[in-house]
Sequence to fold (364 residues):
Amino acid sequence: MQLLIDARLMSQGEGTGVEVYATNVISRLISTYTTPPPTLFYNAWHTAPLPPSWVASGAPVINWHIPNKLYDLWQPPVDRRIPADIVYSPHINYLRIDHAPHVLTIHDLSFIHYPQFFPLKYCLWHQRQRIYEQAHRAAAIIANSAYTKSDIVDTLGIDPGKIHVAWPGIERSAFDPETKARLSARKQEILRAPYLLMLSTLEPRKNIPAALSAFATLRRDPRFASLNLIVAGGKRWRFSPLPQDGVIWWGGVSQAEKALLYTQAQALVFPSFFEGFGFPPLEAQSYGCPVVASDRSSLPEILAGSALLVDPWRTDRLADALEAILTDTVLRDRLITDGFANTRRFDWNTITCALSDIFASLAP
Fold:
């Protein structure tokens, strides 16, 4: 069976949750299918380097060096020019396919439900991806959560029988105690005070203003006068960091910094309006960090009672939940224990096995 994998998502090198997903899934497919190895379709005018393990595997890489903005406007059927028995897309980047069965991962439909969370150029990009057409033509669809599967059925009108739920795993790096010593003197000083953590891309969907408002409420209590809020993550769109007492705008984070920030945080604040899955709460739990998250979309499913869930519009409830973690040691210990137990449900091999079964059922 010749597998063709659409790896164009990796060309930007942005390190988003979807790229983390694609990196882990594609790595495991390359390790699983060796005779013949998968072909990687990596077309772009400029591309970020592929992971070294992919290059070392000998998997063929096809790059036509066509700018993807142009390629999206007119595409030749990829399986007419590249041999493929099955085509797998780990994201919704539109790919024109003539005859090979297409397996597609849909992470979420936030761009349909909340177009106001995206700038115009991204709204136009999502329109060009023809999600309705792709979903209906796909031979099988992978959804990251039962919530997303239900949303695909209800919103796109897809037969639930061809949608398979497979939870992603967790990207967890070993904690390196030397990480702090490599930080700037300013950041080392910041970490000497207790802090709450919000780690996400800086964009409207993540509901950062709610975290800031809840934190401001806490800071008015003398018990929390020395508490900080670290907001870590790269800026995406429609968000400008503003100065606020006790709020530290950390910027982008490496995997080593993530481990350090999660390990030392009093709690993770994650009041996102919409998540097809949501990596940060599970990553935080894997480092023993209690979580306060939104009670919307997939988050109740993936956190399953192991975190405090609140209405993302109720900043007073968010502040109350954070106060409870900061003051109730019994609650804090329970959330840490339950969080560790919860993360054991998530393994990247789940997706590899699901995809292998699907490919076997579709192979000629």
User: Anything to note?
Assistant: The mean pLDDT is 92.
